[in-house]
Records
---
Amino acid sequence: MIFVTVGNGKFESLVKHLDHLKETNQIKDKIIIQIGHGNFEPKHCEFFKFAPNLTNYYNKADVVIGHGGPGTVFEVLRLKKKLIALANTNRTDPRHQVEFLSAISKETNSLIYCDDLSKLKHKIKEARLKTFSTYQKPECQMHNLIHSFLKKKPKKNQK
């Protein structure tokens, strides 16, 4: 089963594309799509708008396809699921998810970044064959940055 999540917004182009792939029998798997606030309702895939928790859907899926929101990406990576992530460039900031997915896909082999919807069918086949690595969260270095910043701060009215 392929589970697709678009998060809180809508990702009409992704939902329509998957519905078309299912309709034309290019994907034979069962597809369940969380469409969020989207208006397009798939005719060939199961769908729902929202659920209190998506963990059961993630766990049942062979492959998860998701928008590039960091919350969704890290949630799926923590569950060690095969993830194909696409940037939803129709959001308020069209570059945000592109920059995030581009950076994380260079950092880890834990997901597949699909930068073009026309490549999605191929990326699904790739995900089935690929051995994904387990995502290792980088160690937080924020305390070092704060310490360094505070050491450089000039003192007031020194004479």
---
Amino acid sequence: MRIFLICTVRLGVTEFSEEYVSKLEKEGHQVHFPPRDTNQVDPLKGWNICKDNKRAIEDADEIHIIYNPKSQGVHFDMGVAFALSKKVKLININEWPEEKAKSKSFLNMIEVWEQKSI
């Protein structure tokens, strides 16, 4: 399966995300991991990064999300995946309890999206 992993890049790549990618690849999945697979040097101030990620999201069978409410890139990539009606899987659902406590939050919306995309 081709998987695009939405995760933070500018806020720092976590050991958790690297281990998650390694696990998926050992299982035989092809993973697009933006810190590794999207050229992060962009003279057009992020334009190429967004275009490259959009193409990789289009090509993916499934989108996995390591959510971080502080990451603009995570929100941007989620918008692309949502617009393309991609199937999603939320990986770190319990990491942001303050976001879960809100009646409206991206984290809660992703939970609904995940259920509707099954």
